[in-house]
């Protein structure tokens, strides 16, 4: 079946402006334009739009979605299975957050008590879940299940103070990295960025698991894997990931 842009927008619950933008950035182009100048979408485009909306529900950027959907050997059945798994994880995350909110309400009513660690459990679990969803395949393939499971356990066992320190270190790193276009390696600022990243990494993976080679390998994966590149580039500007890799390779 074929659809005009208006009919497809109504079918999918999006705006025609959204579809025009997807066409503009070559994320979803119509099958053809008829003699009257109307965009016409076929079954292939309908299915692709469904995939795009699945990915948007998982909070992926349009750039990340385009990278995934433009793979020449894309397997839609496998992709659907991945969507389902990710949505189940998201459901579990939301359930945990709701549970924490309910407990906090009960605390405010004087019905129960919560430790400071319990107050942040859902947020730490959210971070673990997001990391697994976005980067799990890459990091488990590179470092193995034992390393990543240990890292997740270390994060979940963090105190509220340690967790806040970890978040603060990353934010300071991103703030410094935002000026990467004028950054010189070596320099005092570059060294500070390296030390902040090392602190973040040793908290996430524990000091016992840290090594210079591991640190370098992680930085190499940042620039090799689009999802990692998108993370730092989206937060500190395009090209930030490559500069971070350069810094880590030099100082490690």
Key descriptive features of the protein:
3 domains, Multidrug-efflux Transporter Regulator, Chain: A, Domain 2, 3 strands, 252 residues, 12 helices, mainly alpha, three-stranded antiparallel β-sheet, 73% helix
Outline the structure in words.
Residues 1-71 form the HTH merR-type domain. It holds the Pfam family TipAS. 73% of the residues lie in helices and 3% in strands. It is mainly α and 252 residues long. It folds into 3 domains: 3-65, Multidrug-efflux Transporter Regulator, Chain: A, Domain 2, CATH 1.10.1660.10; 75-158, no CATH class; 159-252. The chain has a 3-stranded antiparallel beta sheet with strand order 1-3-2. A hairpin with a 5-residue loop joins β2 (32-33) and β3. It is globular and about 65 Å long. The relative contact order is 0.07. The mean pLDDT is 84.
The end-to-end span amounts to 57 Å
Tell me the number of structural domains. 3
Characterize the largest beta sheet: strand count, sense, and whether it forms a barrel.
Answer: 3 strands, antiparallel
Q: Trace the largest sheet across and list its strands.
A: 1-3-2
Cα Rg? 22 Å
User: What class do helices, strands and sheet pairing give?
Assistant: mainly alpha
List SSEs in N-to-C order: EHHEEHHHHHHHHHH
β-strand number = 3
Q: Strand share of the residues?
A: under 5%
Report the mean per-residue pLDDT as an integer. Answer: 84
Shape: globular
List the total number of helices. 12
Unreliable runs: none
Helix content: over 70%
């Amino acid at each position: 079946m074929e659809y005009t842009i208006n009919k497809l927008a109504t079918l999918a619950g999006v705006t025609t402006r959204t579809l025009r933008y997807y066409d503009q950035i070559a994320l979803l182009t119509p099958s053809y334009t008829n003699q009257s100048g109307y965009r016409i979408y076929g079954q292939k485009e309908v299915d692709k739009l469904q995939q795009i909306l699945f990915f948007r529900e998982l909070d992926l950027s349009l750039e990340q979605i385009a990278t995934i959907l433009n793979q020449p050997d894309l397997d839609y059945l496998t992709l659907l299975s991945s969507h389902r798994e990710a949505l189940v994880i998201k459901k579990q995350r939301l359930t945990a957050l709701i549970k924490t909110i309910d407990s906090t309400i009960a605390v405010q009513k004087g019905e129960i008590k919560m430790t400071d660690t319990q107050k942040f459990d859902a947020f730490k679990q959210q971070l673990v879940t997001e990391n697994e969803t976005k980067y799990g395949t890459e990091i488990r393939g590179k470092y193995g299940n034992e390393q990543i499971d240990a890292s997740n356990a270390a994060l979940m066992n963090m105190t509220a103070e340690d967790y806040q320190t970890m978040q603060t270190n990353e934010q300071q790193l991103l703030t410094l990295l935002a000026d990467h276009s004028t950054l010189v390696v070596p320099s005092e600022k570059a060294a500070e960025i390296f030390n902040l990243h090392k602190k973040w990494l040793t908290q996430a993976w524990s000091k016992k698991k840290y090594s210079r080679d591991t640190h370098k390998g992680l930085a190499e994966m940042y620039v090799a894997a689009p999802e990692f590149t998108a993370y730092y580039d989206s937060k500190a500007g395009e090209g930030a990931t490559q500069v971070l890799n350069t810094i880590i390779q030099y100082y490690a």
